[in-house]
Specification:
- The complex is a heterotrimer.
- Chain A contains 16 helices and 18 strands.
- Chain A is of the alpha+beta class.
- In chain A, the strands form four sheets. In chain A, strands 1, 2, 3, 4, 5 and 6 form a six-stranded antiparallel beta sheet that branches. In chain A, strands 8-7-11-10-9 form a five-stranded antiparallel beta sheet. A five-stranded mixed beta sheet of chain A has the order 13-15-16-18-17.
- In chain A, helix 2 runs antiparallel to helix 8, helix 8 runs parallel beside helix 9 and helix 9 packs across helix 16.
- The C terminus of chain A is likely disordered.
- By secondary structure, chain B is α/β, with parallel strands linked by helices.
- The longest helix of chain B is centred in the N-terminal third of the chain and has 22 residues.
- Chain B is elongated, with a radius of gyration of 27 Å.
- Chain C is an alpha/beta fold.
- In chain C, helix 9 links the parallel strand 9 and strand 10.
- The chains are: A alpha+beta, B alpha/beta, C alpha/beta.
- At the A-C interface, helix 2, strand 4, helix 6 and helix 8 of A face helix 1, helix 9, helix 10 and helix 11 of C.
Chain lengths: 603, 341, 306
């Protein structure tokens, strides 16, 4: 099934290619391959990079949460250490009845006063034993009701961190209400001979904890917050707003999450949430990264990528258009030239340029066109010639002077009561005309042509009152050869008019025909006046209408021979003034069977 | 070739358009009437001396506005005794391009952050009331300090006691041993003013020939309730032995007075420094011997004059005398209780 | 270039230009998002720390919304004329919006020609009758008065009411609420006005004294009457809260100042960006007593985390 589909598609493709110009196909395939390459490359890189980026951002976020976890951990540990230090170095084994622990407490407080608001030691009845910095207990406040006090005594082996609250212990002349985190632990107090339980309270400044989270921001407007194990907020960048109801957080749900990362939806927003538990306290750090903007960022990125791709697309189109035009221009020019030739501009030059194949094509086509042109010219010329000669032949056939003279002679003969001569002349005339027509053929046997000449000679001899004599000498081989009709007679005519007119009975015309090699030489020689060389030249060139004869003209003969048989053959004139002239026809040997030669057909 | 030219033109257009976002749009600030913005960062709004001074400052600013027609914006922030907070507030002022900063440092040893940020942004700084060390002040020539001279404070404070002693030595010698047993309640541990005042006031007494015995001393960090708690302990411990209580400032003296009243004692050999309204009231009521008034209104005026001169790029030296150590000292005077001549 | 190629080129170019415009628009609009607004707040509430928490709310909102907040204080040392001229000068200045918080002299706000002001105005603390185009954030003063009356009725004390001056709109409203509830409950009360001129001896023993604003309450606390009569009041300062704790004051009716400040600036941003409509935002009030002082919701209202 796939194969047939493939074949159908490729077939379609092929037919499409055949219908479009080569330039368009080249352009299209260049462009498509360039674009496919660009898009694939771009997509691959983009996907790879964005995945890497996402991964990096996620890692960074997790790293940040880990770091904050670390710093909170360190902070809590430091505070634990302070508490322990106070207990073990200051309180334990010191008899508070006799000694004062005030100055040691003050020392420790002084060192850590940026973290600590107050250090206070209470006994189990909630009475204040010592405190640093100096402070007086507030009236009406029983610390035994406080959660930090109770929790410390509940689990005496542990230290307890409370959630932030306003301190409510000491007289405050400035009416300050400070937010603190209470670190409380049960301690053993020695008083005189007794030991009793007490609670060591270190009230930590809320600022020192919240500072760990300040300026910590995650990607895409994300943030961190701290909550206790139950989800109650300890620190949140918008804690006050949440308390006032102006903002909301999903902390109660987040309290149920395990440590690690996950996605959640809160108030219609998708967020990535990273949770880590802080040691010892069970507090949890939550990092929240909104996903919304990320998607928009992606849209922005995609738009830029799309922009770049489209820009490249535009450039590729331009470049490919240019290249494909330049590449296929020679072919196009060649095609145009050929078209021009087809539409009849016979003399147009074929374009020859471009790559060597196209140049070769061009040259070949040029050659063929030239040859065609030549042949066409030849045909046309021959055609014209043929028409002309037929016309001439026709003319000769009905040359009035010759006919008048012949008829005169016949009349004279009849008047002279020489019927036999009259019959001969009539018969000769008739035969002359028959051969002239030759049933429309152009090529006739040599003997027919000679017969025609003989008849002519006979008539002319009588006319010219035996001023001349003639002799015909043919080779046996020649008689069955073919020859163009009406080629000898004009020669004879020429000989008579130019040679015999001034001979008083001594004129002799000799007609000979020989086979010389591959050629047939038919000569008509006379011993007449001869011609000067210039005249000879002119004879073959000029179309001198011979007024007195049935003249087709020597030129005509020459041309016809050349036309029919080629340039190799034709008329050769040898003449010597006062000696005589010999005009020879050089013709190919053509046997009678092959009648119409060289494919020159009738119209 | 026409299509080629067309294509080139379109390409060029696209290129030009593509480069537009990278030039960005420059927002031109509209023409404004002259105004100066002053960023004031105090270390603790609960410090009565400072808060009184700030109130004067705003009043002086308003008057300046009316006199000169230059609008003054004063933005007051309270660091709540946290230097990190204050640094953040300084950052905010700098990023909002305030004309001048007036800073009352939380931690006087930590001035370099403020000076560095201000220097980078070329915003002059006037520190006040909590003096940075000389090395920090000399870092840049557009940094100044307006404050009081703690040695003179201490000397005047001591002088109050001397005058009272001379008028009636017996009040300071309950046990008749000719020695004045005193307790000193000091300000913040890192505060130079506290150390100098303590030393000089005691020295003044010694120089006047009064015999002294230090019963005890404690640090109440300028805070009234801490002084109250401390003095409570001392009264508990020493009772009548206490003949004189010297406090580094009025708030702490008032704390001692609170304890005295709470315990129902009649003891008023107490001296302080600052001259806050509450302190002056206490002196008037005879609850303490006297106080050294640091004219906070005058100090506020000094601060503001200096700050406004710097903000308009004027010459600070023209408005007040500035010492070689880049400090301007506020004037002070003594107010004694009626019974002291 | 063939016809189809030209077509392809032109269509791609058009697409390109559209995309470019889209990108540029997005860039510009995202740049706008970090614009800093200049907002002035004109307030006459500078004495004492009545407005400390309001300021905290304002500061927080200023940070969240990138606002340069300038406080123009009209203090009592200025004459009414000076105050008015300061106000007008501020209105002409180049700010993006103005918050008006005139408590002592609210008539001043009524003297303003609001039609001449082109920037958005938000009223903090009071509602301006007759101006529907102004957004306001305030607490329902009438219900504060009402609540105060109810608490006093609950405690079963006879009442004598003090307040500083009726010129203050808020106090007028509180008094109205108080009076209404008292009348409805049929409880007798007497109203006196100035703590300085009151004949304290005339107050019957056991009668409670209520003040409708912080300054009056502070005055009362310092007076001998505080020792004999329980005090009630509206509003709070840290000092008053200490008195509440110690028992000198029995009840305080308080409002969420921080939320008020924050919402005021939020409302300003909405007004500048033309989001939402002008409307009154009325916040609720709460009863504070020593027992619940350190519990929620009072803990976060009275002691906001800044």
């Amino acid at each position: 099934m796939g194969k047939s589909l493939f074949r159908a598609l490729s077939g379609k493709l092929v037919s499409r290619t055949e219908r479009s110009s080569i330039r368009y196909t080249v352009f299209l395939s260049f462009t498509i391959s360039a674009i496919v390459a660009m898009v694939l490359t771009g997509m691959l890189f983009y996907i790879n990079f964005s995945r890497q980026l996402e991964q990096t951002i996620q890692n960074e976020n997790e790293m940040l949460v880990k770091q904050v976890n670390q710093s909170v951990d360190t902070y809590l540990r430091d505070m634990l250490r302070i508490s322990n230090s106070i207990y073990y170095n200051v309180i334990k084994n010191v008899d508070i009845e006799s000694d004062s622990i005030q100055s040691e407490m003050q020392l420790l407080y002084g060192t850590y006063d940026s973290y600590i608001e107050n250090i206070a030691l209470y006994n189990a009845e909630g009475e204040l034993i010592a405190t640093a910095p100096p402070a007086l207990s507030k009236q009406g406040v029983d610390v035994r009701d406080a959660a930090w006090f109770q929790k410390a005594l509940d689990r005496a082996e542990n230290l307890h961190f409370s959630t932030p609250a306003i301190q409510n212990l000491f007289v405050n002349a400035e009416h300050r209400f400070l937010r603190v985190v209470s670190l409380s632990s049960a301690v053993e107090i020695t008083s005189g001979k007794n030991t009793m339980q007490g609670v060591l309270l270190i009230d930590l400044k809320y600022n020192s904890l919240s500072e760990l989270f300040d300026h910590m921001s995650l990607a895409n407007g994300g943030y961190l917050y701290l909550m206790d194990a139950n989800g109650e907020l300890i620190y949140h960048p918008e804690q006050q707003l949440i308390a006032s109801g102006l903002a909301k957080e999903n902390n109660l749900v987040a309290a149920t999450y395990h440590d690690g990362g996950q996605m959640e939806t809160f108030r219609g927003e998708t967020r990535s949430v990273i949770v880590r538990t802080v040691g010892y306290t069970g507090w949890r750090i939550v990092g929240v990264i909104p996903q919304q903007g990320l998607a928009l960022n992606q849209v922005d990125n995609l738009m830029i990528v799309a922009f770049i791709l489209l820009l490249l697309f535009d450039i590729v189109i331009l470049i490919n258009s240019f290249i494909s035009t330049k590449l296929t221009a020679p072919i196009k020019h060649l095609e145009e030239s050929v078209q021009a030739v087809e539409y009849g501009g016979g003399n147009t030059d074929i374009y020859q340029g471009g790559s060597y194949e196209i140049r070769h094509l061009g040259a070949s086509i040029q050659g063929m066109v030239d040859q065609l042109q030549e042949l066409t010219d030849d045909i046309v010329r021959e055609h014209e010639q043929k028409q002309k000669s037929e016309l001439d032949a026709l003319q000769s056939q009905i040359n009035p002077h010759f006919l008048y003279n012949a008829l005169d002679i016949i009349v004279w003969m009849i008047e002279k009561e020489q019927p036999k001569e009259a019959v001969n002349i009539v018969t000769a005339l008739a035969r002359l005309f028959r051969i002239s027509l030759s049933r429309g053929k152009n090529i006739i046997p040599v003997r027919d042509e000679i017969e025609h000449v003989q008849n002519y000679l006979m008539i002319q001899k009588m006319r010219y009152k035996n001023k001349f004599s003639y002799e015909i000498d043919l080779d046996e081989a020649v008689k069955n050869l073919s020859i163009i009709k009406l080629v000898v007679q004009p020669l004879v005519e020429n000989a008579i008019y130019h040679g015999m007119d001034f001979m008083d009975g001594d004129g002799k015309i000799t007609i000979t025909a020989r086979v010389v090699g591959e050629e047939l030489h038919l000569s008509v020689a006379d011993n007449g006046l001869g011609m000067k060389p210039e005249v000879v030249e002119r004879l073959l060139v000029e179309n001198t209408p011979v007024s007195k004869g049935s003249g087709v003209g020597l030129k005509n003969v020459n041309e016809r021979i050349k036309l029919y048989f080629g340039d190799k053959y034709g008329v050769m004139i040898e003449s010597e003034p006062d000696a005589g002239t010999c005009i020879t026809l050089i013709l190919p040997v053509v046997h009678c069977e092959t009648e119409e030669v060289s494919g020159v057909g009738e119209k | 070739m026409g299509c080629k030219r067309f294509a080139c033109a379109v390409c060029a257009l696209v290129m030009v358009l593509a480069s537009l976002p990278f030039f960005g749009c420059s927002s031109s600030a509209p023409e404004q009437k002259p105004s100066i913005s002053v960023g004031v960062a105090i270390y603790n709004g609960d410090d009565t001396f400072i808060s009184n001074m700030m109130q004067s400052l705003t009043e002086i600013a308003t008057k300046y506005e009316q006199d000169t027609g230059i609008r003054v914006y004063v933005n007051l922030t309270d660091a709540q005794e946290n230097q990190t907070n204050q640094n953040k507030q300084i950052d905010r002022f700098v990023s909002m391009n305030y004309d001048v900063l007036c800073v009352n440092l939380v931690d006087r040893t930590d001035a370099s952050y403020t000076i560095d940020r201000a220097m980078d942004a070329d915003i002059p700084v006037v520190f006040f009331n909590r003096e940075p060390v000389q090395e920090d002040l000399q870092k840049w020539d557009r940094v100044y300090y307006v404050g009081t001279d703690p040695a003179e404070n201490g000397r005047l404070e001591g002088q109050i006691v001397v005058d009272a002693y001379r008028a009636d030595p017996a009040r300071f010698d309950k046990n008749g041993d000719g020695i004045v047993q005193y307790i000193i309640i000091e300000g913040e541990i890192r505060h130079q003013d506290a150390m100098i005042r303590t030393e000089v006031s005691v020295q003044t007494l010694k120089d006047a020939g009064i015999e002294l015995e230090k019963l005890d001393g404690g640090i109440a960090s300028w805070v009234r309730s801490q002084a109250a708690a401390l003095s409570d302990q001392y009264f508990e411990k020493y009772g009548d032995q206490i003949e004189l209580i010297i406090c580094n400032n009025d708030d702490m003296a008032l704390g001692v007075i609170d304890t005295v009243e709470r315990r129902g004692l009649s003891f008023n050999n107490i001296v302080g420094i600052d001259g806050t309204p509450a302190g002056l009231a206490a002196v008037e009521q005879g609850k303490m011997l006297g106080t050294v008034v640091i004219d906070y209104a005058a100090q506020a005026k000094l601060i503001f004059d200096l700050a406004s001169a710097l903000a308009v790029d004027g010459d600070p030296g023209a408005v007040t005398t500035i010492g070689a150590d880049r400090t301007v000292r506020a004037p002070m005077y003594v107010v004694k209780a009626d019974f002291i001549p | 270039m063939g016809k189809s190629e030209k077509l392809a080129f032109i269509s791609v170019t058009v697409l390109l230009i559209c995309l470019l415009i889209l990108i540029v628009v997005r860039v510009i609009t995202s740049k706008d998002a970090v614009r800093v607004y200049r907002v002035s707040i004109i307030t006459d509430d500078v004495q004492g720390d009545y407005s400390a928490n309001v300021q905290k709310g304002l500061d927080r909102a200023a940070r969240d919304y990138n606002i340069d907040l300038q406080v123009i204080a009209l203090h009592s040392g200025m004459t009414t004329e000076q105050q008015k001229s300061s106000l007008e000068r501020e209105l002409e200045a180049d700010t993006d919006a103005i918050i008006i918080n005139l408590q002592q002299n609210p008539s001043l706000s009524e003297q303003l020609d609001l039609s001449a002001i082109s920037v958005p105005i938000v009223s903090l603390g009071t509602v301006w009758d007759g101006y529907s185009s102004i957004r306001s954030i305030s607490t329902d003063d009438a219900s504060m008065g009402n609540l105060l009356a109810q608490e006093m009725i609950k405690d079963g004390v006879t009442v004598c009411v003090i307040r500083a001056s009726l010129d203050n709109t808020r106090i007028r409203l509180r008094e109205a609420g108080f009076v209404k509830t008292m009348k409805a409950a049929g409880v007798a009360y007497s109203s006196e006005w100035d703590p300085d001129t009151i004949a304290w001896e005339s107050i019957p023993k056991g009668a409670a004294v209520a003040a409708l604003d912080e300054p009056s309450l502070e005055k009362l606390v310092g007076m001998p009457v505080a020792a004999i009569s329980p005090l009630y009041g509206i509003g709070y300062t840290n000092a008053l809260l200490s008195s509440l704790e110690s028992g000198a004051i029995r009840r305080l009716i308080v409002e969420d100042d921080y939320a008020m400040g924050y919402l005021a600036l939020q409302s300003v941003v909405d007004a500048i960006e033309n989001k939402g409509t002008a409307h009154e935002q009325i916040l609720g009030c709460y009863v504070a007593d020593a027992k619940h002082l350190y519990q929620e919701p009072l803990q976060h209202i009275l002691f906001p985390i800044s």
